[in-house]
Amino acid sequence: MLTNPDTKITYNFLLNNGFPIIDKWFIDAETNAIEKTIFLNTIIRDAKISNVEIDVEAFRNKIDELEKSEYSKDYVSILDKNLDDLVEIFSKVAVGKRASDFSLTDENGKIYKLSEMSNKTIVIDVWASWCAPCIASFPKWNALAEKYKDNKNFEFLTVSIDKKTELWKNGLEKHQLEGIKLYAGEKAFDSDFAVNYNISAIPCYIVIDANGEIALLNANFKELEKYAENHQVNNLTFLK
User: pTM here?
Assistant: First the structure.
Protein backbone atom coordinates (compact mmCIF):
# COMPACT_ATOMS: atom_id res chain seq x y z
CA MET A 1 0.00 0.00 0.00
CA LEU A 2 2.74 2.44 0.99
CA THR A 3 5.02 1.60 -1.92
CA ASN A 4 2.14 1.55 -4.40
CA PRO A 5 -0.34 4.25 -3.32
CA ASP A 6 -2.35 3.87 -6.56
CA THR A 7 -3.51 0.40 -5.56
CA LYS A 8 -7.21 -0.16 -4.92
CA ILE A 9 -6.48 -2.74 -2.22
CA THR A 10 -7.52 -1.55 1.24
CA TYR A 11 -6.08 -2.33 4.64
CA ASN A 12 -9.31 -4.10 5.55
CA PHE A 13 -8.86 -6.30 2.48
CA LEU A 14 -5.33 -7.14 3.59
CA LEU A 15 -6.54 -7.88 7.10
CA ASN A 16 -9.36 -10.16 6.00
CA ASN A 17 -7.24 -12.09 3.53
CA GLY A 18 -3.89 -12.08 5.29
CA PHE A 19 -4.67 -14.42 8.16
CA PRO A 20 -6.16 -17.20 5.93
CA ILE A 21 -3.07 -17.04 3.70
CA ILE A 22 -0.77 -17.31 6.72
CA ASP A 23 -2.81 -20.29 7.94
CA LYS A 24 -2.22 -21.92 4.56
CA TRP A 25 1.49 -21.19 4.39
CA PHE A 26 2.52 -21.75 8.02
CA ILE A 27 1.13 -24.86 9.68
CA ASP A 28 3.42 -24.86 12.71
CA ALA A 29 1.54 -23.13 15.55
CA GLU A 30 4.46 -21.03 16.79
CA THR A 31 5.49 -19.83 13.33
CA ASN A 32 1.86 -19.17 12.44
CA ALA A 33 1.31 -16.96 15.49
CA ILE A 34 4.55 -15.01 15.00
CA GLU A 35 3.87 -14.45 11.29
CA LYS A 36 0.39 -13.13 12.08
CA THR A 37 1.82 -10.80 14.71
CA ILE A 38 4.41 -9.41 12.30
CA PHE A 39 1.82 -9.08 9.53
CA LEU A 40 -0.69 -7.26 11.74
CA ASN A 41 1.91 -4.89 13.15
CA THR A 42 3.18 -4.13 9.64
CA ILE A 43 -0.18 -3.07 8.24
CA ILE A 44 -0.99 -1.01 11.35
CA ARG A 45 2.34 0.80 10.93
CA ASP A 46 1.78 1.20 7.20
CA ALA A 47 -1.70 2.66 7.77
CA LYS A 48 -0.19 5.16 10.19
CA ILE A 49 2.43 6.26 7.65
CA SER A 50 -0.11 6.40 4.83
CA ASN A 51 -2.71 8.27 6.90
CA VAL A 52 -5.40 5.81 5.88
CA GLU A 53 -8.25 5.06 8.28
CA ILE A 54 -8.98 1.44 9.10
CA ASP A 55 -11.75 -0.65 10.62
CA VAL A 56 -10.50 -0.45 14.21
CA GLU A 57 -12.92 -3.06 15.55
CA ALA A 58 -11.79 -5.60 12.93
CA PHE A 59 -8.18 -5.03 13.93
CA ARG A 60 -9.08 -5.37 17.63
CA ASN A 61 -10.71 -8.71 16.89
CA LYS A 62 -7.53 -10.00 15.20
CA ILE A 63 -5.45 -8.87 18.16
CA ASP A 64 -7.84 -10.73 20.46
CA GLU A 65 -7.25 -13.86 18.38
CA LEU A 66 -3.50 -13.53 18.84
CA GLU A 67 -3.91 -13.07 22.60
CA LYS A 68 -5.26 -16.62 22.81
CA SER A 69 -2.02 -18.09 21.50
CA GLU A 70 0.83 -18.80 23.91
CA TYR A 71 3.27 -17.84 21.16
CA SER A 72 1.93 -14.36 20.42
CA LYS A 73 0.21 -13.25 23.62
CA ASP A 74 3.38 -11.54 24.88
CA TYR A 75 3.31 -9.23 21.85
CA VAL A 76 -0.33 -8.23 22.10
CA SER A 77 0.45 -5.20 24.28
CA ILE A 78 2.69 -3.84 21.51
CA LEU A 79 -0.06 -4.29 18.93
CA ASP A 80 -2.59 -2.66 21.25
CA LYS A 81 -0.34 0.35 21.77
CA ASN A 82 0.36 0.77 18.05
CA LEU A 83 -3.34 0.55 17.26
CA ASP A 84 -4.17 3.02 20.06
CA ASP A 85 -1.57 5.42 18.64
CA LEU A 86 -3.19 5.13 15.23
CA VAL A 87 -6.66 5.80 16.64
CA GLU A 88 -5.30 8.83 18.52
CA ILE A 89 -3.82 10.24 15.31
CA PHE A 90 -7.05 9.80 13.39
CA SER A 91 -8.98 11.52 16.16
CA LYS A 92 -7.01 14.66 15.29
CA VAL A 93 -5.69 14.27 11.74
CA ALA A 94 -8.01 12.69 9.19
CA VAL A 95 -10.15 13.56 6.21
CA GLY A 96 -13.09 15.62 7.44
CA LYS A 97 -11.24 16.88 10.51
CA ARG A 98 -10.48 20.55 11.10
CA ALA A 99 -7.05 21.34 9.67
CA SER A 100 -4.43 22.52 12.17
CA ASP A 101 -3.28 26.08 11.68
CA PHE A 102 0.30 26.51 10.53
CA SER A 103 2.78 29.35 10.29
CA LEU A 104 5.40 28.83 7.58
CA THR A 105 8.02 31.07 6.00
CA ASP A 106 8.71 31.65 2.30
CA GLU A 107 12.13 32.21 0.71
CA ASN A 108 11.90 35.96 1.41
CA GLY A 109 11.04 35.55 5.08
CA LYS A 110 7.33 36.29 4.71
CA ILE A 111 5.12 34.29 7.06
CA TYR A 112 2.03 32.49 5.76
CA LYS A 113 -0.67 31.19 8.07
CA LEU A 114 -3.48 28.82 7.16
CA SER A 115 -5.85 30.92 9.26
CA GLU A 116 -5.20 33.85 6.92
CA MET A 117 -6.09 31.88 3.78
CA SER A 118 -9.80 31.59 4.47
CA ASN A 119 -12.39 30.76 1.83
CA LYS A 120 -9.85 29.05 -0.42
CA THR A 121 -9.00 25.47 -1.23
CA ILE A 122 -5.37 24.96 -0.17
CA VAL A 123 -3.41 22.42 -2.23
CA ILE A 124 -0.11 21.35 -0.67
CA ASP A 125 2.89 19.39 -1.96
CA VAL A 126 5.23 18.32 0.86
CA TRP A 127 8.72 17.56 -0.44
CA ALA A 128 12.47 17.60 0.24
CA SER A 129 15.49 18.13 -1.99
CA TRP A 130 16.75 14.58 -1.33
CA CYS A 131 13.44 12.91 -2.27
CA ALA A 132 13.69 11.40 -5.77
CA PRO A 133 9.95 10.61 -6.09
CA CYS A 134 9.19 14.22 -5.09
CA ILE A 135 11.48 15.56 -7.79
CA ALA A 136 10.04 13.19 -10.38
CA SER A 137 6.54 14.53 -9.66
CA PHE A 138 7.44 18.22 -9.96
CA PRO A 139 6.54 18.52 -13.70
CA LYS A 140 3.05 17.22 -12.92
CA TRP A 141 2.76 19.55 -9.94
CA ASN A 142 3.83 22.56 -11.99
CA ALA A 143 1.38 21.65 -14.75
CA LEU A 144 -1.48 21.37 -12.25
CA ALA A 145 -0.64 24.68 -10.58
CA GLU A 146 -0.33 26.35 -13.98
CA LYS A 147 -3.68 24.95 -15.07
CA TYR A 148 -5.50 26.59 -12.15
CA LYS A 149 -3.32 29.66 -11.66
CA ASP A 150 -6.18 31.99 -12.60
CA ASN A 151 -8.69 30.23 -10.35
CA LYS A 152 -9.00 32.40 -7.25
CA ASN A 153 -10.55 29.51 -5.33
CA PHE A 154 -7.25 27.62 -5.21
CA GLU A 155 -3.98 28.36 -3.43
CA PHE A 156 -1.05 26.09 -4.31
CA LEU A 157 1.70 25.66 -1.70
CA THR A 158 4.89 23.65 -1.62
CA VAL A 159 6.30 22.86 1.81
CA SER A 160 9.86 21.63 2.17
CA ILE A 161 10.93 19.50 5.12
CA ASP A 162 14.64 19.71 4.34
CA LYS A 163 16.83 19.78 7.44
CA LYS A 164 18.83 22.76 6.18
CA THR A 165 17.51 26.01 4.76
CA GLU A 166 20.16 26.14 2.07
CA LEU A 167 19.14 22.73 0.74
CA TRP A 168 15.55 23.97 0.43
CA LYS A 169 16.58 27.17 -1.34
CA ASN A 170 18.94 25.32 -3.67
CA GLY A 171 16.08 22.96 -4.50
CA LEU A 172 13.80 25.89 -5.26
CA GLU A 173 16.34 27.39 -7.64
CA LYS A 174 16.95 24.07 -9.35
CA HIS A 175 13.38 22.89 -9.77
CA GLN A 176 11.47 26.17 -10.24
CA LEU A 177 8.34 25.06 -8.39
CA GLU A 178 4.98 26.71 -8.99
CA GLY A 179 2.94 28.09 -6.11
CA ILE A 180 3.86 29.68 -2.79
CA LYS A 181 7.14 28.12 -1.65
CA LEU A 182 7.28 27.49 2.11
CA TYR A 183 9.66 25.87 4.59
CA ALA A 184 8.65 23.75 7.60
CA GLY A 185 11.89 24.46 9.45
CA GLU A 186 15.07 22.55 10.21
CA LYS A 187 13.28 20.10 12.51
CA ALA A 188 12.01 18.50 9.28
CA PHE A 189 9.78 15.51 10.16
CA ASP A 190 9.74 16.71 13.78
CA SER A 191 8.54 20.19 12.82
CA ASP A 192 5.15 21.37 14.06
CA PHE A 193 3.77 21.18 10.53
CA ALA A 194 4.92 17.59 9.93
CA VAL A 195 3.76 16.41 13.35
CA ASN A 196 0.37 18.13 13.15
CA TYR A 197 -0.33 16.54 9.77
CA ASN A 198 1.25 13.18 10.65
CA ILE A 199 3.73 13.39 7.79
CA SER A 200 6.20 10.54 7.93
CA ALA A 201 6.72 9.86 4.22
CA ILE A 202 7.00 12.05 1.11
CA PRO A 203 5.90 13.09 -1.41
CA CYS A 204 2.76 13.92 0.53
CA TYR A 205 -0.19 15.76 -1.02
CA ILE A 206 -2.71 17.50 1.21
CA VAL A 207 -5.88 19.41 0.36
CA ILE A 208 -7.65 21.66 2.85
CA ASP A 209 -11.06 22.78 1.64
CA ALA A 210 -12.60 26.24 1.83
CA ASN A 211 -14.23 25.34 5.15
CA GLY A 212 -10.84 24.65 6.72
CA GLU A 213 -11.31 20.88 6.80
CA ILE A 214 -8.91 18.24 5.51
CA ALA A 215 -10.24 17.01 2.16
CA LEU A 216 -7.27 14.87 1.10
CA LEU A 217 -4.42 13.57 3.23
CA ASN A 218 -1.36 11.80 1.86
CA ALA A 219 -3.14 11.52 -1.48
CA ASN A 220 -1.53 10.28 -4.68
CA PHE A 221 -1.27 12.64 -7.62
CA LYS A 222 -4.21 11.13 -9.50
CA GLU A 223 -6.44 11.82 -6.50
CA LEU A 224 -5.08 15.35 -6.36
CA GLU A 225 -5.88 15.99 -10.02
CA LYS A 226 -9.35 14.50 -9.68
CA TYR A 227 -10.12 16.63 -6.63
CA ALA A 228 -9.02 19.82 -8.37
CA GLU A 229 -11.12 18.98 -11.42
CA ASN A 230 -14.20 18.32 -9.30
CA HIS A 231 -13.80 21.37 -7.05
CA GLN A 232 -12.94 24.18 -9.40
CA VAL A 233 -15.80 26.15 -7.88
CA ASN A 234 -15.43 27.32 -4.29
CA ASN A 235 -17.09 24.69 -2.06
CA LEU A 236 -17.47 26.89 1.00
CA THR A 237 -20.58 26.01 3.00
CA PHE A 238 -22.27 29.20 4.21
CA LEU A 239 -24.15 29.19 7.49
CA LYS A 240 -27.76 30.20 7.11
Answer: 0.69
| Interior/surface letters 154-181, b for 16+ CB within 10 angstroms, e for the rest | bbbbbbbbbbeeeebbebbeebebbbbb
Dihedral sign, Cα of residue 45, residue 50, residue 56, residue 61: negative
**Residue of 207, 135, 136 lying closest to 167 (CA atoms):** 135
Whether 187 and 198 have beta carbons less than 8 Å apart is answered as: no
- The answer to whether 208 and 214 have CB atoms below 8 angstroms apart is yes
From 120, 56, 141, 142, select the one nearest 91 (Cα to Cα).
56
Instruction: Please give the chain's pLDDT, 240 residues, in tens.
Output: 444 445 556 777 888 888 889 989 998 898 988 998 998 888 888 877 666 667 778 888 888 888 888 888 888 888 888 888 777 777 667 777 888 899 999 999 999 999 888 788 999 999 999 999 999 999 999 999 999 988 888 999 999 999 999 999 999 999 999 999 999 998 988 898 998 888 878 888 999 998 888 888 877 888 888 888 888 665 444 332
